[in-house]
Design a protein that fits this description.
By secondary structure, this protein is an alpha+beta fold. It is built from 24 helices and 10 strands. Helix 1 packs antiparallel against helix 18, helix 9 runs antiparallel to helix 22 and helix 20 packs antiparallel against helix 21. 51% of the residues are buried. This is Di-and tricarboxylate transporter.
């Protein structure tokens, strides 16, 4: 091993640890490693920037826009909402729901599908007394499996396709991955409808859980004329930095002031609504001129009126809130909303709201204005933003939806026939949407997840460093020395397991980019078909079922489903074994 190889190996190990422990946003961690490789001279400028001009990465960017245009109409949500209403029984409802959703995710990006359907399915479950936790992990898994059927089903497939093109190979055909993805999806869904359904926990829905907890963390105090800070600001009255308590609303006759700013004037007769730790409420009661309002039980419904509502929002991997406390993020002024409670691992965090350091997957209960949903529905800071009492809204006219869907299907047909490459077809689709005013340039910009693109492009540079220094060939040689005597099928198992481990620890696209150079080096040493290794890596990088952090869709349902980390292991581990055995078996039969 050379010094350069050792440096790259140490940097990659540090990157994996930083990603696992969520030191910073994933895109910033990988980009930092890329910059170090560049300034150290291990990579030239051209090598470091190879990912930013990669066809697969740019196709992912265009696909974000195409998927956004199709989903903007709400056709998909409208169809599935009506379809759900006809369902009878939980298991039959799962079959009716997840079979078509798997089909949809073969052609649309699975992340926006899960974002759109999480509040719809959760609300549907709560209305019928079903546990949403029985449905939301299967929603994520169904879209992941459906995404393995086609080239455009997931960004991972397009990233691997782009890398193959960089190696002067043919890349994937539109339905080439279906030889593994289709049987995997069928068997995986059968598992979820039978064994998986029994293993899944039956946690209470968010609304019911919040209502039960309301009496534990909501407190109402009345301001008496004797309160020494009447006609003073909230800050002057010492109500801003209370230990373990947080002022979320002031009710003044028929007026409700929420969120409450530091400069809000306190008046006699005000009803102050606090959220916080139960033990700290007694301390607040001792304050002269503040009396605990008794005789009524405060509920979540009491906080709402026509101008504000309770909203659930899930912190995303790309969120600017990540690793900040709510106070540091200046949440109230930034989003014009007050945080009522924060849930993590199916439990409300027992701490002062302002001091809670947010993590991806945290579920926030917010008291927000009526325009909050519209403003932050597509914000990169949140995965899911939905009112507790209503599913997502549907806006556009059906005609635009049918036109968008028609353009997408036409582009898929053109690529399948071979008239245009995937990148050319998606670029043409975006142009048609813009010219036809299906979307505006501003909307197109909002649909693109730039943090994801930075992560993918930076990972390409890291993968290039593995290649250029010979580290990929060195790792491949080590794997071969152990696995070659046992046969190529054992090597395929090694490749699948290592890719899947990287996916669970970091992210799917980054795992694929790191593993492709190793897989292709092994194929070259064995004089074997490299496409078999590429298919194995593409499927393994997508098949993230064991942790909520490996794949975005798993994290999206983490908070709304009230899951614990262990729930993913219980349900996902058998599915991971099924996916590995099926993938390796099919690839070995077809390619070797």
């Amino acid at each position: 091993m050379t010094i350069e190889m050792g440096v790259v190996l140490i940097l990659i190990a540090g990157m994996l640890l930083a990603l696992f422990f969520e030191v910073a946003r994933p895109d910033m961690i990988v980009f930092t490693v890329l910059v170090i490789l560049l300034i150290s001279g291990i990579l030239t400028t051209e090598q470091a920037l190879v990912g930013f001009s990669n066809e697969g990465m740019l196709t992912v960017a265009l696909l974000f826009i195409v998927a956004g245009a199709v989903q903007k109409s709400g056709m998909v949500e409208r169809f599935m909402t009506g379809w759900l209403q006809k369902s009878r029984g939980p298991v039959s409802s799962m079959v009716r729901t997840f079979v078509p959703i798997s089909g949809m995710s073969a052609f649309l990006n699975n992340t926006p599908i899960v974002v759109a359907f999480t509040p719809i399915i959760k609300k549907w479950c709560e209305d019928r007394g079903y546990a949403p936790s029985k449905f939301l992990i299967p929603l994520s898994y169904a879209t992941i499996m459906g995404g393995t059927i086609t080239l455009i089903g997931t960004s991972t497939n397009l990233v691997v396709h782009g890398m193959l093109l960089d190696y002067d190979m043919a890349g994937f055909g539109m339905f080439q991955l279906a030889i593994v993805g289709l049987p995997l999806t069928i068997v995986g869904l059968i598992y979820l409808f039978t064994v998986g359904y029994r293993i899944l926990p039956a946690y209470e829905g968010t609304q019911k859980r919040m209502e039960e907890e309301a009496k534990e963390y909501l407190c109402e105090m009345k301001v008496e004329p004797a309160f020494p800070y009447v006609r003073k600001t909230v800050q002057e009255a010492g109500l801003r930095d209370l230990q373990g308590m947080f002022l979320i609303e002031i009710i003044r006759r028929d007026e409700r002031i929420s969120p409450v700013s530091s400069n809000t004037i306190v008046q006699a007769g005000d009803r102050l609504i606090f959220t916080g730790v139960l033990e700290k409420m007694a301390d607040l009661q001792r304050t002269a001129g503040l009396t605990l309002k008794t005789g009524t039980e405060l509920t979540l419904d009491d906080l709402q009126n026509g101008s504000n509502q309770l909203v659930e929002a899930v912190v995303s991997h790309q969120s600017s809130l990540q690793a900040k406390t709510i106070k540091q993020a200046q949440f109230r002024s930034s989003y014009d909303a007050g945080v009522v409670a924060v849930h993590r691992n199916n439990e409300r965090i027992q701490s002062k709201i302002g001091d809670i350091r947010l993590r991806p997957g945290d579920s926030l209960l917010l008291l927000a204005g009526s325009d909050f949903l519209q403003k932050y529905k597509r914000s990169n800071d949140f995965y899911v933003v939905s009112a507790l009492e209503t599913p997502g809204s549907i806006r556009e006219r059906p005609a635009k939806g049918w036109f968008s869907l028609g353009v997408l299907l036409a582009m898929i047909a053109i690529v399948t026939i071979g008239w245009l490459s995937m990148f050319q077809a998606m670029a043409l689709a975006v142009l048609i949407f813009l010219v036809a005013r299906i979307i505006t340039p501003e909307e197109a910009k909002r649909y693109v997840q730039f943090q994801v693109l930075l992560l993918i492009a930076s990972a390409f540079g890291v993968g290039s460093a593995m290649n250029e220094t010979g580290l990929a060939a060195w790792i491949a040689k080590g794997l071969l020395a152990f696995g070659e005597p046992l046969g190529i099928i054992v090597i395929l198992f090694f490749i699948y397991a290592l890719t899947n481990l990287f996916t669970e620890l970091i992210t799917n696209s980054a795992a694929a980019v790191l593993m492709i150079p190793i897989g292709l080096s092994i194929a070259e040493s064995l004089n074997a078909d490299p496409m078999g290794f590429a298919v194995t890596i593409a499927i393994a990088a997508s098949a993230s079922f064991v942790t909520p952090i490996g794949y975005q869709t798993n994290l999206i349902v983490y908070g709304p489903g009230g899951y614990k980390f262990s729930d993913y292991i219980k349900v996902g581990l058998p599915l991971t074994v099924i996916a590995m055995v099926m993938t390796v078996g099919i690839v070995h039969t077809v390619y070797f």
